[in-house]
Backbone:
C-alpha cells in the first residue's frame, strides 16, 4: 500500500482525476429542500473536484455524496471558524485557513474533524440551534475518530503531519464541546479522563516523528511581538509567583522520597516558567487561543508519575494543578475554553481533602474574580 505523501512535500504533476460529489438530503434537516428533493435524478446538482496524485485507500474514502448542511459547515470553516483556532498573525503559512481544508480532501479524519469544529462554533454563535449543531458535530467527530484510529498503526514519516493535525483537531473538538460532568481534563470521578487519553495520543505521535512533523508549513515560527512582561502586569505576575512558591514550600515540608521530590520540583519550576510566558503574551495583547500551547504544554510535559498522582487525586498533585488552572482563565476569550477554568477548579475543590483546601484559596478566588 503506498503511503500518503507529506503535505509539505511538492508532488510531481499528474493527470488530475475527477471525483463526483452529489448533493444528498441530510438527517439534520427538518424538512427536505428543493435542491435535495431530486436526489438520485439526472438533474441533481453536482460538484466536481480535482485531486492530484494517488493516496492509499484508507485516506481516499468513497464519499459518494455530500449534503448541503455539510457544505455549509465547510463554508463556515473556511470563512470564519478557522480564525478562532490559531493566532492568525502567526499562521503565516495559512495552515488553518488553506492547508487543513486541502488536506481534508485526502484525509477523512481531517475533513470530518474540521466540520465537527465548524458545527460546534456555529452552535456557540447560535445557541438556539446548538442541539442541532452538536448532533452534526458528534456525527463528524465519530467518523474522524474512526479514521484516525485506522491509520495510527501506519504512522510513518510520510503521513505523520496529517495524523498529528488530526490528533490536535480531536483535542480541540473535545474543548469545543464544553465541560463534561465528572470530567476535569486530567482526572475524573470515575476512570481515566478522556482528554488526558487524547493528550497521550498526541504525545506518542510527537515522540515518534517530532523532527518530521514540525517541518514545512508546520515549522514553528518565533513571535516578534512577544517582548517580555510589561510593567502593567508585573505586580500581578509577582503575586502569582509568590503563591506558586508557597506550594513549593508545602512540598518541601513533606517527607517525600528523592525522586518524588524532584518530580514535584520540576512541576513547580515549569509552572513558574509558563506563568512568565503567559504574562508575556498578555502584555502583547494576546490571550485566548494564542496561549493554548502555554497552558496545555505544562500538562504535556508532566511525567506519567505525576499524571498518575492526579488520576489518584493525590492532594499535593491536586494543589499544584489548582494553581495551573489559573492559566486556563487566560483562555476565556476563546469560545473553545469557555467555562473550563471554573469547571476544573470546582472538580479539584470537590475532590481535595478538607485539610488541603486552604492551599487552593488563591487560585479559587483568582478564577472566580
Residues:
Amino acid at each position: 500500500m503506498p503511503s500518503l505523501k507529506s503535505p509539505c512535500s511538492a508532488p510531481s504533476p499528474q493527470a488530475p482525476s475527477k471525483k463526483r460529489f452529489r448533493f444528498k438530503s441530510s438527517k439534520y434537516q427538518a424538512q427536505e429542500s428543493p435542491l435535495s428533493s431530486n436526489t438520485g435524478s439526472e438533474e441533481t446538482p453536482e460538484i466536481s473536484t480535482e485531486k492530484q496524485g494517488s493516496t492509499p485507500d484508507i485516506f481516499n474514502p468513497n464519499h459518494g455524496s455530500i449534503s448541503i448542511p455539510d457544505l455549509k459547515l465547510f463554508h463556515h470553516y473556511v470563512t470564519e471558524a478557522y480564525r478562532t483556532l490559531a493566532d492568525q498573525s502567526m499562521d503565516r503559512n495559512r495552515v488553518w485557513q488553506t492547508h487543513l481544508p486541502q488536506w481534508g480532501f485526502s484525509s477523512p479524519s481531517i475533513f470530518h474533524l474540521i466540520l465537527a469544529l465548524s458545527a460546534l462554533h456555529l452552535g456557540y454563535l447560535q445557541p438556539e440551534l446548538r442541539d442541532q449543531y452538536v448532533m452534526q458535530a458528534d456525527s463528524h467527530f465519530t467518523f474522524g475518530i474512526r479514521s484516525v484510529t485506522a491509520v495510527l498503526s501506519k504512522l510513518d514519516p510520510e503521513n505523520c503531519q496529517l495524523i498529528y493535525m488530526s490528533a490536535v483537531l480531536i483535542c480541540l473538538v473535545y474543548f469545543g464541546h464544553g465541560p463534561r460532568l465528572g470530567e476535569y481534563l486530567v482526572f475524573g470521578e470515575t476512570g481515566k479522563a478522556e482528554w488526558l487519553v487524547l493528550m497521550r495520543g498526541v504525545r506518542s505521535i510527537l515522540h515518534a516523528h517530532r523532527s518530521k512533523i514540525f517541518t514545512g508549513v508546520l515549522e514553528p515560527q518565533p513571535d516578534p511581538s512577544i517582548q517580555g512582561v510589561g510593567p502593567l502586569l508585573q505586580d500581578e505576575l509577582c503575586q502569582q509567583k509568590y503563591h506558586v512558591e508557597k506550594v513549593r514550600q508545602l512540598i518541601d515540608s513533606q517527607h517525600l522520597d528523592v525522586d518524588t521530590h524532584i518530580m514535584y520540583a520540576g512541576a513547580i519550576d515549569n509552572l513558574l516558567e509558563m506563568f512568565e510566558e503567559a504574562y508575556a503574551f498578555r502584555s502583547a495583547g494576546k490571550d485566548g487561543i494564542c496561549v493554548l500551547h502555554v497552558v496545555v504544554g505544562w500538562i504535556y510535559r508532566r511525567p506519567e508519575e505525576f499524571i498518575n498522582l492526579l488520576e489518584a487525586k493525590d492532594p499535593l498533585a491536586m494543589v499544584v494543578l489548582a494553581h495551573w488552572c489559573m492559566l486556563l482563565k487566560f483562555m476565556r476569550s476563546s469560545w473553545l475554553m469557555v467555562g473550563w477554568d471554573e469547571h476544573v477548579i470546582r472538580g479539584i475543590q470537590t475532590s481535595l481533602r478538607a485539610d488541603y483546601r486552604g492551599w487552593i484559596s488563591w487560585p479559587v478566588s483568582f478564577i472566580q474574580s
Remarks:
- The first helix runs from residue 68 to 79.
- The beta strands are 17-24, 46-51, 65-67.
- Residues 231-368 form one domain.
